[in-house]
């Protein structure tokens, strides 16, 4: 049995800050690819395709990252459940950072032909593999150190990381779009955000170097021999339900941040600078409100907020698409903002909710696999399906119907999941009341 005596527990603000910084860096790596796919990768790496087909092909490589994420959660989940949460944070950050820098170095189709999109595909797969391990390690290390009565709050800080990573990635793209000509941006400007990932990865590794292992992991007497086998045998229904439940969050987020960017710039004639500004503003508000919704989850439970968020998403998808189709920045921002609020109502509490659904010995694998399978259902397919469905339509109602359908699916899955009351969970884990 692992002995936890003598292990110094870090302060929660410091631990939360380190986890937040790491997830921000890794999601920066992931999001910068999505923005580049929407703006420039199609003509550079798939020039023989029509404009629409080029965007679809670029989004196809984007989707490969999501397919890799569940595999990464299995690989890194095994490490996390067998050897601890902390090693996962270092290995996943190294892998994602290296793959992202390499994307910025890949020659275009004009230079090396079909090898260019193949290399892009491989590197995007490696990005997804690393990110699949990052979320589970960062969230569990924070959640398992936190007092149960405030677990939702502290576990929500890694969930702010995606918003920061997105704003950072798109902020760099926005500055480049505003200061470079289209020719300069296409020739070399788009590579700069990928190269910057190397500096960010080094900073993230330094921040995480002082973290200590999770006390709940150290209390496990017999770690699972093959965590994924145990998850599939004993928790397969829970994995499927969590994947279906989380699909709406990914679908909403990537319809706003990736598909709408491509649709508005290609079909509606809105400048990419305006679109990036509208999307970034909505994501900033979402990130700022994440701890607020997490506190509500600590007060009222995780499941009620998840039900409310998925129901709000189902009701808002048609208005959001209508507002986007106006091409007017204030109206587009309003559509994006409400969608992001529906999203964060769910995802602010997910970092506490998913770990509480799984027993500690398989938690790193189970929570991460469910989380990342939801990404395949909602994130990988949404830009591709939405781009295909919106073809030729001024107001793409088919996209709204697709998103509404995913929201209803997730609503049903959340309805079938149990609540995890913080006090009851704490008693089960420690045999004592929370403080």
Structural write-up:
- The structure is a single chain.
- With 435 residues, the protein is mainly alpha-helical.
- α11 runs parallel beside α15 and α15 runs antiparallel to α16.
- The chain starts with 11 loop residues before the first helix and ends in a 5-residue tail after the last helix.
Secondary-structure map:
Layout (H helix, E strand, L loop, with lengths): L11 H34 L5 H33 L2 H18 L5 H4 L2 H31 L5 H29 L2 H6 L4 H17 L6 H4 L8 H8 L1 H32 L4 H29 L1 H25 L2 H29 L5 H27 L7 H20 L5 H9 L5
The number of helical segments is: 17
Give the CA-based shape: globular
In angstroms, what separates the terminal alpha carbons? 25 Å
How large is the share of residues in beta strands?
under 5%
What structural class should be given to the helix and strand makeup?
Answer: mainly alpha
Averaging pLDDT over every residue, what do you get?
85
As a percent range, the share of helical residues equals over 70%
The description of the largest β-sheet is: none
Q: Measured on Cα atoms, how large is the radius of gyration?
A: 21 Å
Please, what is the oligomeric state? single chain
Features:
435 residues; mainly alpha; 82% helix; globular; disordered N terminus
């Amino acid at each position: 049995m692992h002995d936890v005596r003598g292990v110094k527990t870090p302060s929660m603000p410091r631990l939360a800050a380190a986890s937040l910084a790491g997830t921000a860096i890794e999601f920066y790596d992931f999001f910068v690819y999505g923005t580049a796919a929407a703006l420039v990768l199609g003509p550079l790496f798939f020039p023989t395709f029509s404009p629409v087909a080029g965007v679809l092909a670029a989004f196809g490589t984007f989707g490969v990252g999501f397919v890799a994420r569940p595999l990464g959660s299995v690989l890194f989940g095994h490490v996390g459940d067998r050897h601890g949460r902390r090693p996962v944070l270092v290995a996943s950050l190294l892998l994602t950072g290296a793959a992202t820098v390499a994307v910025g170095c890949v020659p275009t189709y004009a230079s090396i032909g079909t090898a260019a999109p193949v290399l892009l595909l491989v590197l995007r797969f490696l990005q997804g593999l690393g990110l699949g391990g990052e979320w589970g390690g960062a969230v569990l290390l924070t959640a398992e150190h936190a007092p149960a009565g405030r677990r939702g709050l502290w576990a929500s800080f890694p969930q702010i990381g995606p918003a920061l990573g997105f704003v950072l990635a798109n902020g760099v793209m926005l500055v480049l779009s505003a200061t470079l000509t289209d020719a300069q941006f296409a020739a070399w400007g788009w590579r700069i955000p990928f190269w910057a990932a190397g500096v960010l990865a080094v900073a993230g590794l330094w921040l995480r170097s002082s973290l200590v292992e999770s006390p709940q992991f150290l209390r496990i007497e017999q770690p699972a021999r093959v965590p994924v086998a145990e998850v599939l045998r004993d928790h397969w229904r829970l994995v499927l339900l969590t994947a279906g439940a989380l699909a709406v969050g990914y679908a909403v987020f990537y319809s706003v941040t990736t598909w709408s960017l491509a649709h508005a710039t290609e079909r509606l004639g809105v400048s990419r600078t305006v679109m990036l500004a509208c999307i970034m503003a909505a994501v900033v508000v979402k990130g700022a409100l994440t701890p607020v919704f997490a506190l509500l989850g600590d007060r009222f439970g995780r499941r009620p907020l998840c039900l409310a968020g998925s129901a709000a998403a189902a009701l808002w998808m048609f208005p959001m698409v209508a507002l986007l189709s106006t091409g007017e920045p204030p109206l587009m921002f309003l559509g994006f903002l409400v969608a992001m609020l529906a999203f964060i109502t769910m995802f602010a509490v997910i970092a506490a909710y998913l770990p509480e659904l799984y027993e500690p010995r398989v938690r790193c694998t189970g929570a991460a696999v469910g989380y990342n399978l939801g990404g395949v259902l909602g994130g990988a397919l949404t830009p591709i399906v939405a781009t295909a469905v919106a073809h030729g339509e001024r107001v793409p109602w088919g996209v709204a119907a697709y998103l509404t359908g995913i929201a209803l699916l997730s609503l049903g899955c959340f309805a079938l999941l149990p609540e995890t009351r913080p006090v009851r969970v704490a008693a089960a884990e420690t045999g004592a009341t929370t403080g």
